[in-house]
Specification:
By secondary structure, the chain is of the alpha+beta class. The protein is 30% helix and 25% strand.
Amino acid sequence: MDKPREECGVFAVAGKSQDVPAASYAYLGLYALQHRGQESCGIASSNGDILTYRKGMGLVSEVFREREFDELKGHLAIGHVRYSTTGDSQIENAQPIVGTSRLGKIAVAHNGNLVNTQYLKSSLEREGVVFQSSSDSEFFLHLAARSGMDRLEEAVLHATKAIEGAYSLVVLSPEAVVSLRDPLGMRPLVVGENQDAYFFASETCALDAVGASYVKELAPGEMAAFRDGHINFIQALPSTRRAMCIFEFIYFARTDSVIGGKNVHLVRKKLGETLAKESPCEADMVIAAPDSGISAAIGFAEESGISYDTGLSRNRYIGRTFIQPTQELRELGVKIKLNPIADLVRSKRVVVVDDSIVRGTTSAKALSMLRAAGAREVIMYVASPPIKYPCFYGIDTPDRRELIAAQYDTGRIAQLIGADRLSYLSVDGLLSVVGPREEFCLACLTGEYPTRLPDTEGGALK
């Protein structure tokens, strides 16, 4: 995968009456968030007395059938779609993670990554805790269950005192739903409402899917607690600054979502316009690296005056389980997923716009296919700055040696991916579109991390 891998997506439903089909709403919400994780998914629901859950490996449409909803009764629910950044790809790590405490059953779903997991694991194991998974989300469950608190809200808040890192949480007990965003707001979490329920989601596109109106974005450190038909918002954790992941705007979020009052498609389009202003060029056509580069490519084309067209066709029916057992078939597999339109690009100077480059492997294959299709010149533009540093907060770039921009300068990267020229958007250009530097985490671009980081030797924080 030559992209920052999606983190995860969370969704929660708090029905205003007992007859609200919360699990069905959660299913629709998770469907809208499928782009944030295709590895596993799950839903937990409660009727105010009994908490039940179902989860499995695969897409939402693969895991849930009609019979599942016969058992997922109740007006309260939480759900999760997962791509693993901590923990293996196995059913034990699928979320929500469920356990039993003095509060009854508790289900936890989490988007983000903790940075002090080694310390937490050692501490809890010394106290006799046995872990059922290798996911860092399980720490919330154990810490809340061991808090001794009488209400879910208090137990969740107690758990957060021991953790550091990025998290947007939705937590379910038999009688309550709690949502909480970390003190830096590194992961998104929004609130919506319709006549039936309140909703909590990683993105506004999921609110649209259930017919909910946008209410607000939870502030960093803010908690929303629903019980007995009422919702309360409290500033549960002190917050001195924001540090939302910049890749929500660059790549992760769906283009129809709104972040901080800004539509994602329009932001990416503006990034493409800014890129064209920073690095003008002459060419015959602009094409996008499908599909994540489309918005930026449109903006680039409009600003540069170069016509936009579809030069690369992507097969949208290649699923997770597409297997390529030999090297020869792996090479052919690239063409099954992506193929140039030869009659369009032949003898043309082609600008390819993408949102980001991680390892450079997919870019190299795409540019090679364009040349084989007869393109006279292939120019690569990237609508984000180079990714030079690993992320510890939920993006799967843990090893700097895997990042092509951490190893080579722009000229050398152009040679490696087969581009005649390569240009990245500057950090200043990025911020001119999205907002002030102090509101975002730019760690993977600048190496400036907003929290303490795990020591690679022993798990302590530094």
